[in-house]
Amino acid sequence: RVGAGAVVDRVIADKGAWIGAGSRVGGPYAPGITPNKLCPEHLASGLTLIGKSARVAEGVTIGRNCRIDPEVTDAMWTGNLADGDFVASPPESTPNHGYDSEPASSR
Predict the structure, then answer these.
(1) Distance CA 101, CA 40 (A)
(2) How far apart are CA 78 and CA 104, in angstroms?
(3) Which of 27, 45, 96, 100 is deepest in the core (most CB within 10 A)?
């Protein structure tokens, strides 16, 4: 679902994702865009990903190469998201998602 007045550009949203009214998500590719902090090898082309059942709060601006994990709620938003940033799933809400301070390669 995309709320009234929201702008969505170069975004892949999984089923059940909600984008709040007046939000701006993604944007056009431009040279020098910051790659994603968690997975730069996958998110460096300007796409923004929104996980299953994630909710983008109303009026929020989300940049390019961003990752919004599954099950993110309206209450988890503290403001806008710069290019290459992320919002992690609530702890233990979904297997294999959410921020982990230990890189997967070191486990």
Answers:
(1) 16
(2) 27
(3) 27
Q: Do the strands 24-26 and 61-62 form a parallel or antiparallel pair, or are they unpaired? A: parallel
Sole residue written with tokens 């209450």: 75
Nearest partner of 48 among 6, 76, 78, judged by Cα: 6
For the whole model, what pTM was predicted?
A: 0.83
Q: How far apart are the first and last CA of the chain?
A: 37
Each residue's pLDDT tens digit, 17-76: 999 999 999 998 888 999 999 999 999 999 999 999 999 999 999 999 999 999 999 889
SS3 49: strand
62 alpha carbon, distance to own chain's centre: 7
SS3 category, 24: strand
